[in-house]
């Protein structure tokens, strides 16, 4: 045999496999499961302030039959988001194209106490009118973009609980230039929901990439963690991007991107006062369950106010649009996805 060929075979058969095994070690799923189990115990409460940017594609305007002038694109906002136990908090202020809040900018605050959602809008509206209005409604949960979707949760559930609710298989290991080895795990349940995770064992097994799939295997949502921060002895997702997609004619079409850039993170330091649902004097309140309107007095008491009820029952859709344009758009996208081709997610 040719000596050069023997040398080549030796190199290919010995050196390269050794190098490959060094780069991609044997996956340790026991460590991943242990890390995922520890996360709910690590985070008893958390408060994150971040900038949120929504960008909508041309396909979004076309498929949703929405005029480009209907809303700003991209939409920017500054968000404070927090959880503690069953309580959650989200305060959103819309920003202009320069990343600043205008003099007529409104702030929308949503507080969920485990069974009831409290939503309050405050600020200065058109023609300099002060606004302090809100509503309450019983619900099981509220679903907003949070930092936890970039590595720790899917659909408001901890990933360890998601894995336990179905079956999962290890598909392989890949090497990422930033996070090192990533374990690719595919999960599905009996209802057909499918999700693929890329766990980073060197970073407390954060799922730095998550993809949910439609029934025919096309990606309909993708979560990418781009940066992490070491906080109180463990890693936490810092920045990330979420992509919304729909499946049409066998193609996965990008509709929108939502980016999160974290400003500050406080873990296990959230005060109970953050979830105070008392409204300021003069504010109006509408109860969606009873269809009753109220006005808040100087001493905090609620007085039945028929005018408030009439405003809500006469113009509910217009009011909801004013409250949260971005939320309605995303609700519309979700509805479109379900109508166009039903897909099951976690």
What does this protein structure show overall?
- The chain is an alpha+beta fold and 346 residues long.
- The strands form 2 sheets. A 16-stranded mixed β-sheet has the order 9-10-11-12-13-14-15-1-2-3-4-5-6-16-17-18. A two-stranded antiparallel ribbon has the order 7-8.
- It contains 7 helices and 18 strands.
- Mean pLDDT is 79; it is low at 1-22 and 315-346.
- It is globular and about 65 Å long.
Number of strands: 18
Mean pLDDT: 79
Q: Using only CA atoms, what is the Rg?
A: 24 Å
Helix content: 10-25%
Could you say which structural class the secondary elements and strand pairing correspond to? Answer: alpha+beta
Indicate the overall shape: globular
How far apart, in Å, are the first and last alpha carbons? 58 Å
Q: Tell me the strand order in the biggest sheet.
A: 9-10-11-12-13-14-15-1-2-3-4-5-6-16-17-18
Which runs of at least 5 residues are low in confidence (pLDDT < 50)?
1-22, 315-346
Order of helices and strands: HHEHEEEEEEEHEEEEEEEEEEHHH
The helix tally amounts to 7
Largest sheet: 16 strands, mixed
Kindly estimate the percentage of residues that lie in beta strands according to DSSP: 35-45%
Topology (elements, then pairings):
Elements: H1 3-23, H2 29-42, E1 45-56, H3 58-64, E2 75-84, E3 87-95, E4 106-112, E5 116-124, E6 130-138, E7 153-154, E8 157-158, H4 159-164, E9 167-176, E10 180-188, E11 194-200, E12 206-213, E13 219-231, E14 234-248, E15 251-267, E16 284-287, E17 292-296, E18 302-304, H5 306-314, H6 316-323, H7 325-340
Parallel strand pairs: 6-16
Antiparallel strand pairs: 1-2, 1-15, 2-3, 3-4, 4-5, 5-6, 7-8, 9-10, 10-11, 11-12, 12-13, 13-14, 14-15, 16-17, 17-18
